Amino acid sequence: MSVTIYGVAASRTMRPLWAALELGIDFKHEPIAFGETGSRKPEFRSVNPNGKIPALKDGDLLLFESMAIDWYLVRKYDNGKGLAPRNLEEEAAILQWTFWAMTEVEKQIIEWAFNAFVWPAERRAPKVAEAAMASIQAPLQVLDQALAGKQWLVGERFTLADLNVAAVLYRLLQADLSHVPNVQSWLRLCLERPAALAMRKMRE
Ligand SMILES: N[C@@H](CCC(=O)N[C@@H](CS)C(=O)NCC(=O)O)C(=O)O
Fold it and tell me: Which residue segments constitute the domains of the chain, with CATH numbers given?
């Protein structure tokens, strides 16, 4: 077993854990906590100098950044499973959706979730949650249109584009998505795959 994934599942580590489970990789999981009690400890800085999770070790290779780790895992271990791109156009489309999720909606979804239900009630700021939810409406419409008449984002099969975007949207399972019905049904389809359910069991 050469692959080790560092980080508790209830964090962005859910992304490489889901990818590894989809790919059937025989990996070791080190559930390092985030912050002072785990990822920021000096001994973990040799794994990820940023003091954050997730991180990955595969033989001599050390990697940080969840989406770079996912990219590496599917490029190395796909073995025909279909998560990896099959040509340049698919590669660009998978990167497009991955970067879109990270830059257009990730921060706002986290802000919404923490202020809507993750933090204890006294710490929540309902107005911040409301503003964060309002700010993702335009990108959600873009995603909804991209999914019109399609089951998956790229190449008519479940790819890393679906995994990365659905992992970023995970918290929206608890939001009302009835006004973006394509996103609603696609998100459920992604997050109810056996590998996604196994990942969710590790974190919920
Ligand atoms: N862009 C990085 C973000 C990593 C990150 O911020 N991870 C959080 C947990 S989800 C963390 O380790 N925070 C600990 C800290 O900032 O002390 C990625 O996608 O991997």
Answer: 3-77 (3.40.30.10), 88-203 (1.20.1050.10)
